[in-house]
Amino acid sequence: MPSWVWLLLLVHLIVLIIVGLCVQKKAWLTYSMTKGVRKGYIWRVGVSLIALIGGMALGLAGLVNMRASWGWPAVAVGGVMFLGGAIVAACFHSPLRVTRHRDGEFWIKGCSPEFLDSLDEA
To answer: Which residues lie across from 97 on neighbouring strands?
Structure first.
């Protein structure tokens, strides 16, 4: 979706969602990963999920025991863990990313030069 659509967040979230769904472009890409790349990808996703779940659990435990001496610090640490896990999950949800679209062509980031050289010219 074009970057200008995010400015509609200043207007209203529902307006952003509706316009974003109307102007988005989709492309389907089939690819495979080597064992090493897949292992790293699964590791990053696993760490982000552990941080998300751990942060939520720690934050919830701190909220439930707010009067205890460890209540507020648990909420703060849990929030930081949750935010860190969410950032990692958002950054590494897919090894490939479309960076630009124009005239029916998509620019993809995350491919190795060897892979791109192996493609046939269309």
So the answer is: 109
